[in-house]
């Protein structure tokens, strides 16, 4: 029936032909009614029914007539608006919310306070006020130990850990052999030092975008682009990175905003916060966003930090009692990247992809890599 519905939608008649369009629309309503009738029959006899929350709201009357259900289970409940949760929770004798309250809440574009309260907050925002039974699932199978340790330290009070029953293949996949300049640590901070002034109110940083391009170019020498994910909080920076990737002949599909990537995971993640001192990144929602970004990584995590990070160390945590920031969880792995403004032949300053160099400090691993401390490496 769904296939028949899709075929009918694809064969939509032109609205200019009133008679044909009227027949098409009448047929469409008949198909929709058949689907609704079939759903009612299924709900009346099924032991388990699964659907999106939005569809459940549209089907509310039918669900209420079939209820009450023994259990209403909300999966990914941190993405569930409070209004939807309260409406649907009444359909069951018991209710369970499964999700991560430390990840992103529902997205609401309206600035209306009531819209933000009822649609932009999940039920988790109110659990601390009630006696609801809670259980934390403290094992994870995605992140390599060092990445998990950083996430656990900053966002989960050291309670999140790598599962015990892991096989050799899992461990091997989390130990990547990459270009020597990138080291072998699971977590690496790329510190960007630039002489180019950056307005603090801008959501675009060309310098960090260029660093991303160099990282992607190096990484794709060892792994397929489909295993790389570049994340940034801002759509403007996503577009900037997209533009640079296309110009460099690299896959534009690797870059995304953090909101779009929730639920995704990749072998390698590059996170560019653009403005670590931005107000919202230092608030509750910002902490959740950063948590989502860095916890997408399976084997390698690269965090690009601009100079203003040190003036705002709280940007990587929403808890004042947590003193350890991400750079300290990175096993002392830091790649300083220095942008300079070399003079062109006509005496005017210039900068761009070809004029930038990575000044890489190997003091912590120079013996292992066989390089002198402070070597400069052009990428």
Describe this structure in words.
- By secondary structure, the chain is of the alpha/beta class.
- It folds into two domains: 2-129, no CATH class; 140-377, P-loop containing nucleotide triphosphate hydrolases (Rossmann fold).
- Helix content is 34%, strand content 15%.
- The protein contains 13 helices and twelve strands.
- The strands form four sheets. The chain has a six-stranded parallel sheet with strand order 7-6-8-9-5-10. It has a two-stranded parallel sheet with strand order 1-2.
- Helix 7 (145-155) links the parallel strand 3 and strand 4.
- Helix 1 packs antiparallel against helix 2 and helix 9 (206-219) crosses helix 10 (235-247).
List the defining traits of the structure above:
alpha/beta; 2 domains; 6-stranded parallel sheet; Rossmann fold; single chain; globular; disordered C terminus; 379 residues; 15% strand; 34% helix; two-stranded parallel sheet
Element layout with pairings:
Elements: H1 2-10, H2 18-45, H3 53-58, H4 60-66, E1 69-74, H5 82-89, E2 92-97, H6 113-119, E3 139-140, H7 145-155, E4 161-162, H8 168-173, E5 187-194, H9 206-219, E6 228-232, H10 235-247, E7 255-257, H11 258-261, E8 266-271, H12 284-294, E9 297-305, E10 334-339, E11 358-359, H13 366-369, E12 376-377
Parallel strand pairs: 1-2, 3-4, 5-9, 5-10, 6-7, 6-8, 8-9
Antiparallel strand pairs: 11-12
């Amino acid at each position: 029936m769904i296939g028949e519905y899709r075929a009918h939608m694809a064969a939509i008649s032109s609205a200019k032909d009133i008679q044909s369009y009227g027949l098409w629309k009448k047929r469409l309503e008949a198909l929709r009614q058949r689907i609704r009738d079939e759903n009612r029959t299924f709900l009346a006899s099924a032991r388990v029914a699964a659907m999106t929350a939005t569809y459940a709201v549209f089907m509310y009357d039918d669900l209420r007539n079939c209820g009450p259900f023994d259990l209403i289970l909300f999966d990914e409940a941190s993405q569930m608006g409070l209004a939807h949760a309260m409406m649907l929770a009444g359909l069951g004798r018991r209710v369970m919310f499964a999700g991560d309250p430390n990840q992103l809440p529902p997205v609401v574009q309206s600035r209306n306070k009531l819209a933000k309260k009822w649609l932009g907050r999940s039920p988790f925002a109110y659990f601390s006020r009630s006696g609801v039974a809670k259980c934390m699932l403290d094992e994870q199978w995605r992140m390599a130990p060092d990445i998990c340790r950083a996430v656990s330290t900053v966002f989960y009070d050291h309670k999140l850990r790598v599962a015990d029953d892991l096989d050799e293949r899992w461990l091997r996949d989390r130990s990547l052999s990459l270009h020597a300049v990138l080291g072998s640590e699971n977590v690496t901070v790329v510190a960007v030092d630039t002489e180019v002034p950056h307005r603090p109110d801008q959501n675009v940083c060309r310098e960090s975008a260029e660093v991303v391009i160099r990282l992607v170019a190096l990484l794709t020498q060892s792994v397929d682009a489909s295993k790389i994910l570049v994340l940034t909080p801002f759509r403007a920076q996503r577009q900037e990175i997209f533009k640079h990737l296309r110009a460099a002949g690299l896959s534009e599909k690797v870059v995304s905003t953090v909101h779009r990537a929730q639920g995704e995971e990749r072998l390698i993640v590059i996170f560019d916060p653009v403005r670590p001192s931005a107000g919202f990144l230092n608030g509750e929602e910002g902490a959740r966003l950063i948590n989502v970004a860095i916890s997408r990584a399976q084997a390698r995590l690269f965090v690009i930090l601009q100079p203003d990070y040190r003036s705002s160390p709280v940007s990587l945590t929403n808890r004042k009692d947590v003193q350890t920031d991400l750079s300290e969880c990175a096993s002392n792995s830091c790649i300083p990247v220095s942008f300079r403004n070399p003079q062109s032949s006509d005496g005017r300053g210039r900068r761009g992809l070809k004029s930038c160099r990575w000044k890489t400090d190997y003091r912590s691993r120079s013996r292992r890599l066989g390089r002198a401390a402070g070597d400069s490496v052009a990428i």
